[in-house]
Amino acid sequence: MRVREMLDCTRCGACCTNPDENRAEGYSAYVDVTERESLLRHGKLVERYVTRDAEGRAHLKLDAGQRCSALSGKLGRRVRCEIYALRPAPCRRVQEGDADCLRSRRERGISD
């Protein structure tokens, strides 16, 4: 069985956390939200899940634990994206089992 077939994103959530490399550099603008994203047309959701950096660029907010604020649940157990249908392009590009996925899982201590 291939790794991709064994992974269940709804039981993981590791890709929805700021990577260790970013944390070490103090970089918290992890997921860009471009002005073309439909999420930005939903005022209440923008207020809750989007922040802007000093240059005015939109990003998904991270909570104190460096998790995306739109992620609910417990990493490695059961998670859910509160804006899944409106998630920005970087989130849509995530592929279960790719190198970034596996790195994120290792960093968060989630076994394959």
Structure description:
With 112 residues, the protein is of the alpha+beta class. It has one domain (3-107). Helices cover 27% and strands 14% of the residues. The strands form 2 sheets. A 3-stranded antiparallel sheet has the order 1-3-2. Strands 4-5 form a two-stranded antiparallel ribbon. The longest helix is centred in the C-terminal third of the chain and has 9 residues, at 99-107. The protein starts with a helix and ends in a 5-residue tail after the last helix.
List keywords for this structure.
5 helices, 112 residues, single chain, alpha+beta, 5 strands, 14% strand
* Element string (H = helix, E = strand): HHEHEEEEHH
Strand order of the largest sheet: 1-3-2
Computed over alpha carbons, the radius of gyration is 14 Å
Please identify the oligomeric state: single chain
Unreliable parts: none
Query: What's the structural domain tally?
Result: 1
| N/C terminus separation | 12 Å
Shape: globular
Structural class: alpha+beta
Q: How helical, in percent, are the residues?
A: 25-40%
What is the mean predicted local confidence, pLDDT? 91
Count every helix, treating DSSP H or I runs of 4 or more residues as helices: 5
Number of E-state strands: 5
Strand content: 5-15%
Note the main sheet: 3 strands, antiparallel
